[in-house]
Structure formats: structure tokens, C-alpha cells
Amino acid sequence: MLAIQTHLRKVMHFSKFHSAVLCLAVSTLLVHTALAEGPWEITPQSTAALQRGLTWLAENQGPNGDWESDDLGLIGMGALAFMADGHAPGRGPFGQPLERALNRILSSPRPSGLLNVADPQRDMYNHGLTTFVLGQAHGMTNDSRINGVLDRALKLIAFTQAEDGGWDYRAVRRENGHDLSLAVMQAKALRSAMDTGIEVAPEVVDLAINSVREHYSPDGVSRDASEAEQQKYPGQFTYTRHGGKASLAMAAAGVVCLQEFGQYDDWRIRKNMEIIHAEIAKLKDKENRNNGRLPFDAYTLYYVGQALYQVGGEDWQRSYPILRDAVVESQVLRPGNPREDGHWNAGAHVGGKPGDLYGTAVGCFILAMPNRYLPILQEGRIESFQHDVP
Asked: Distance between CA 99 and CA 29 in Å, rounded?
């Protein structure tokens, strides 16, 4: 109970929190205390690493708020790192860099509502991730500029959903979606909005759930077998439909999608959690001491951490401490060198300073998760999602 009281004092001190979000935080904190919350979640080492990471983000941002990146999604990740530690725009030690990042995003929407100013092939990656961040900011600030931008962004996600429930890389409506990595971005954006009181059409969610399930592939039996038969065999979510490109990232992304869409009891979640636990357990035998290499690449780590947290309970207790300590151990330590000290690199997909932005933002997010400041980390179950999807 002392842990709850301490946390609630911090939340109440965050004066720009909406009252509805505060009430949700109280009720959900009680649930998480019973399931997972405890002093084991945060260590002095993880607290220090988080502050070093946020300091790196603040000192390496630049006046226009973009960390030399033209990907709004990565800029949004920088903002998310600050918000995950409870910081408000324009206030406190990290208020200015947070405000600059949000200003950069809010000044960038296209007339269509699209949140991408980079290569059109990155439309829905940037759009989904940035929309998610704005949904979190909507629940944590009183910035009236967010409402219109977020509303148009959500409408674009619904409009560009493919007929089979997925999404394409470009912000266009296709007959078929492309892959699970796009679906998880949009899933988080849609749930982020719902957690702050914005409605999402049920048919968009139902189509997306069906699409995600089509990315599950059993090992040892045909995908056309009955679900009862498939449950007898191992399996996992894959990048493409019908079993293409299995990876830890996709195992975690599939879990996150089903959780965000309210399919909490879907049997596929447990199959993929077994894969996630097995990969995290291997981190005990690896040494990445202060080399800047996250335990998994930034994209994978981002979803692995959320899959653990959302499933919660014993899953969270079992593997989060291992993951947390691996993140702490890998952080670059270069005291007196602000360009290096406290950062991580992305490890894949993104290089240079934007890659350091991505890696550091994800590292900070993972270490800040037990703080539960973000609305997405305070969410309860959305019962309206828990219906059978044809």
C-alpha cells in the first residue's frame, strides 16, 4: 500500500493529468499491485540508467526537436520516453525537450491527416507510431492542439485499412494488407485513442483481429486444422500470413495486437509467451556491458516489453527483471561526454543519430514502464472488445 500511496502522490503532482485518467490510474494500480507491482520492478541501477538516458535525449535533441530524423515516429518515441517518466511539456528538467518534440509532430500533419514527412513507403509506420504517441499525450496534457490532429489521424487509419483487415506501407486502401509489423502499429494507435475516451468503430477492430490471427502459424499441423487441433502443437505469429518470417519481434507483436484488441484469453497468446520467455532467459548468458547494444534490437525490445507487461502477473514477474537488467548493463557510460553518455543504439533498421534516438527512447521506455504514468500502462480491460469475432 505504501508503494501505491507514493505512486499516487507522483501522479497527483502531475497537474495536467485528466481527472478521468487519474481515476483509471487509481483502479488499475490496485490491480497491478496484486498482480505484479513490487520493489523488484525498479532498482537503483535502473533508476540511474533511466535518468542518464533521458539526459542524453535532452542534450542531443537539437532546437527543432527532431534529433536529426525526418521520421515523426522516432521523434514521437523521444517524446514518449519523457512522458513515460511522468514529465509534462514545458515543465521540469525535461519539459522543454518534450515540448519541442510534440511541437515538431503537431506542426507536421498533411491535409489528409497523415503523420509522415519522410519516404511514402514509411507512411503507416510513422503514422501509426506517431498517432499512438499523440494518444498518450492526449491523456496526459491539456494541449488542445492534439485533438484535431489525433481525430484526423485515427480517421486515416480506419480509411486505409485493407479489405482483409491489415494495412499497407503507404497510406492507401488496398485489397490486402502487407504484414503484422504494420498491424501492430495501428493496433496500438487505436487502443491509445480509446484509452483516452475516443471512439473507434467496432468493424475496424473486428477486421484487424481476424487479420492478426491469420498471421499465426502452427508447427506440426496444417493451418487449416481446427483450432482445437492447432492448440496441441507449438506455433507463433509471423511477419506474413501463412507462416512467413517467424521472429521474436512478430511473436511479441501478435501478443500485443490481441491484448490491445481485447482478446485477452486467446490461446495464441500463451504459445507466443513461451517463445518470449525462452529468448529472454538466454540473456542471462550474454554480456553486453556498456556497449550500447540493447538486449534485442529496438523494434523487438519495444514489443517484447509491452507483451510482458500487458499479459502481466507471473509473466511480468518472471521475465521483466531479466530484461530490465540486460538493458541497464548495455547502456553506454562515458561520463563527461554528452554525445555518448547514457545512450543505446537501435541495433537494426535505423542508423546514425536517429538510430541512437530510437535505441535510447526504447531503452528509457522499458526502464520507465513500472512507473505506470502512461495511460496505455494504466489501462484496464475493455469489455466491449471481448466478443467473438467471426
From this structure: 27
Give CA–CA dist 215/209, Å, rounded. Answer: 10
For the beta sheet containing 244-246, the strands, ordered from the edge strand earlier in sequence to the opposite edge, are: 216-218, 235-240, 244-246
- Across the chain, mean pLDDT equals 88
Over residues 324-365, the pLDDT tens digits come to 999 999 999 999 999 999 999 999 889 999 999 999 999 999
Closest CA to 380 of 140, 33, 10, 32: 32
**Which burial class, exposed, middle or buried, applies to 374 when counting CB atoms under 10 A from its CB (0-12, 13-18, 19+)?**
buried
Q: Read out DSSP for 321-357?
A: HHHHHHHHHHS---TT-TTTTT--B--SS--HHHHHH
Q: Indicate if the pLDDT at residue 4 is higher than 50.
A: no
Cell of 141: 496534457
Residues forming beta bridges with residue 345, ordered by sequence position: 293
Evaluate if residue 385 carries a pLDDT over 60.
no
Rounded Cα distance between 312 and 81, Å, is 21
Model confidence pTM above 0.90? no
Q: Going by C-beta distance under 8 Å and a sequence separation of 6 or more, which residues neighbour residue 67?
A: 57, 60, 61, 74, 75, 78, 353, 354, 356, 357
CA pair distance 188, 292, nearest whole angstrom: 27
| 237, 223 Cβ separation under 8 angstroms | no
Question: How far does Cα 384 stand from its chain's mean position?
Answer: 22
CB atoms within 10 A of CB 342: 28
Per-residue confidence (pLDDT) for residue 382, from 0 to 100: 54
Residue with cell 473507434: 200
Q: What pLDDT band is residue 383 in, cutting at 50, 70 and 90?
A: low
Contacts of residue 356, defined as CB under 8 A and 6 or more positions apart, other chains included, come to 56, 60, 67, 343, 344, 345, 346
The grid coordinates listed for 20 are 478521468
- Radius of gyration of the CA atoms of the chain, in A: 20
Q: 310 and 256 in contact (C-beta within 8 Å)?
A: yes
